[in-house]
Amino acid sequence: MTQPKAASDAFIKAMPKVELHVHLEGSIRPATLLELARRNKEPLPADTIEGLEQWYTFTDFPHFAEIYQTLSRCIKTADDIELIAHDFLQGQADQNVLHSEVTYTAHTIWKNTQIPFEKQLAALNKARAWGEKELGVSMGLIIDIPRDWADDKDAVMIGDWVVDHHGNGVIALGLAGYEVGFPPEDFAVPFDRAAKNNVPAVVHAGETMGPDSIWGAMDRLQSVRIGHGVRCVEDPKLVETLRDRQIPLEVCPTSNVCLGVVDRLEDHPLPKLVDQGLYVTINTDDPPMFGTTLNDELIRVSGAFGFGEEELQHFMSQAARASLLPKADRKALENRIAA
């Protein structure tokens, strides 16, 4: 294991960063939620920022799902979507996160509001353009199939959205949500069409289910990265395959603690993943819900496992190389991280 030599908080905050696994709706901060609720006359469990911060504090998965559904209900218009994207990009810029690849569940918004996907995407692209021009930060969109909320017809529809709009801010087809009872293989139809149209797949696997979920994501859905993937350690053959193929893992340590994948941060397999030569990136998942930021994640893993400046910079370089930007843009991002 890496010997203790933690990086300073100041170094971590100043370091340029890349984030690959973060949910846009799950990044809505309490102040923004309060604004949305007042704008759209939606009731909330609290009517102050302090009260919402307390309500956000993670307790268990049903509470987490309740928060997520409340967030989604408070989004009513394309302007609301643009607002949450603005807020997210400002928060990333404040942390010196140069590029983010953001999972967005357009299907849930469509179900709740009937805002067509095209209008949702236009709002997100307005925010993306603003972020690049005003803040110098970029964002790519992974439009996901919520495996536990979308039926087969919905899954195909979402896949069609992604294929039809790939390259217009949309970088990949995702699969997210509760894994138990919803294996990757069940979603082969939309992912096969995506693959035929050269659209990458980015699949959540190996969080609430074990190695079989990761195998399915890799071999059946051709996922270019694995969202989470930490339970690969339960299968030595899988670890060997991930190492040989250098498939990036989008590791979210605090999320894993909150959702019970591990009991404590100190029990997290992150050092083992690194020591076994796996391709590891560090991410937040749903930051305000889990009481974290990307800076906080790096500070925590540095303190818990002794990752120093060089190791943390390596995580960021790995994330830049694993991004789904066009080749020239990806190289420019790598150079910005290295500088």
Question: Could you list some keywords that capture this structure?
Answer:
single chain, 339 residues, alpha/beta, TIM Barrel, eight-stranded parallel beta sheet, 8 strands
Summarize the structure.
Helix content is 52%, strand content 14%. With 339 residues, the protein is α/β, with parallel strands linked by helices. α5 (78-94) runs parallel beside α7, α8 runs parallel beside α9 and α15 (309-322) packs antiparallel against α16 (327-338).
Q: In terms of topology, how is this protein built?
A:
Layout: H1 9-14, E1 17-23, H2 30-40, H3 49-56, H4 61-73, H5 78-94, E2 97-104, H6 106-113, H7 117-135, E3 138-146, H8 152-165, E4 170-176, H9 188-196, E5 201-205, H10 211-220, E6 223-228, H11 236-245, E7 249-251, H12 253-258, H13 270-275, E8 280-282, H14 294-305, H15 309-322, H16 327-338
Parallel strand pairs: 1-2, 2-3, 3-4, 4-5, 5-6, 6-7, 7-8
Helix pairs in contact: 5-7, 8-9, 15-16
